[in-house]
Design goal:
By secondary structure, the chain is of the alpha/beta class. It is built from 9 helices and 12 strands. The chain has helices spanning 39-49, 65-73, 115-122, 140-149, 163-169, 180-190, 203-214, 226-230, 251-268, and strands at residues 3-6, 10-17, 31-37, 54-60, 81-83, 89-96, 101-106, 130-133, 153-157, 175-177, 238-239, 242-243. The strands form 3 sheets. Strands 5-4-1-8-9-10 form a 6-stranded parallel beta sheet, sandwiched between helices. Strands 3-2-6-7 form a 4-stranded mixed beta sheet. It is globular and about 70 Å long.
Length: 269
């Protein structure tokens, strides 16, 4: 299994200031630091450190050689990172004495990649592979559609959040990573009451479904309301303090739970 991370690479510049500047104010910084950043680069580094095989898909500009060197030093391969003639992505981050910060982001090379280059990089992606994306690049729909067409799973971190961009890529996403407020905004754009109606995958959910099918346990998927669960046979024994069924785990749930525990032990061995 390979994780393809299509994500941003930024140079982060941190300015220590007494307070964040007011409109029209010129403020002298008391310190300056810089480092590798970008939501994409951060995720690639974290994934490599977790022991996965990662291919980072991205771009830096003519000023980005030190960013590549930093990625290599953190064991992130740079074979699928384009070197473009524009500026690299960068962020100006002012950090006040009380810890509050303000960020100005320039996308630079992160939004200058071509579909042709991405097509070449994604050509090897296969059924057991994963594509991870954030919202600091362009061509997200194109990349997600291509990955799904080739059988890969797609994980989308909807940050920085933009409802329209998230809605466009959502049909090709297996797993959506978003906070409560982002989900509410996305539901409004989609005009739905719950993202569950879209059938997004969940890692635990899919594993349970796979286990049931592999062991001839009947399983099907449909939308249902909270009220529907009160009189149903479900693997849940209590909802909002209300016992479901007799309040005890039934034989089918016990069997599925045992199969799932065996799977965890096998994977973690």
């Amino acid at each position: 299994m390979t994780i393809y991370n299509f994500g941003s690479i930024n140079a982060d510049y941190f300015y220590q200031v007494p307070h964040n500047p007011a409109p029209g104010q010129t403020l002298a910084a008391t310190g300056l630091d810089h480092g590798l950043g970008g939501k994409g680069a951060n995720q690639s580094v974290a994934t490599v450190q977790a022991g996965a095989v990662v291919v980072h898909l991205g771009a830096v500009g003519r000023d980005g050689e030190w960013l590549l060197e930093r990625l290599v030093s953190l064991s992130v391969a740079t074979d699928a990172i384009a070197r473009l003639s524009c500026n690299s992505g960068h962020a100006i981050i002012t950090v006040a004495a009380d810890g509050e910060n303000a960020i100005t982001l320039c996308s630079g090379a992160n939004t200058a990649m071509s579909e042709m280059q991405l097509t070449q990089w994604l050509a090897p992606i296969r059924e057991d592979d994963w594509l991870v994306m954030q919202n600091e690049t362009t061509h997200q729909v194109y990349v997600a559609r291509m990955a799904r067409a080739q059988g890969a799973h797609v994980v989308y971190s909807a940050a920085p959040f933009e409802a329209k961009a998230a809605a466009e890529v959502l049909p090709f996403v297996n797993i959506l990573c978003a906070n409560e407020h982002e989900v509410e905004a996305l539901q409004q754009v989609q005009r739905i009451s719950s993202l569950a109606s879209l059938g997004l995958d969940g890692i635990t959910r899919q594993k349970v479904i796979d286990l049931c099918r592999a062991h001839d346990i009947p399983v099907f998927e449909r939308n249902f309301s909270l009220v529907d669960t009160y009189g149903a046979q479900t693997p849940v024994i209590e909802i909002d303090g209300r016992p479901i069924g007799g309040g005890d785990m039934g034989p089918v749930t016990r069997r599925i739970r045992g199969l799932y525990q065996d799977l965890i032990a096998q994977v973690c061995a």
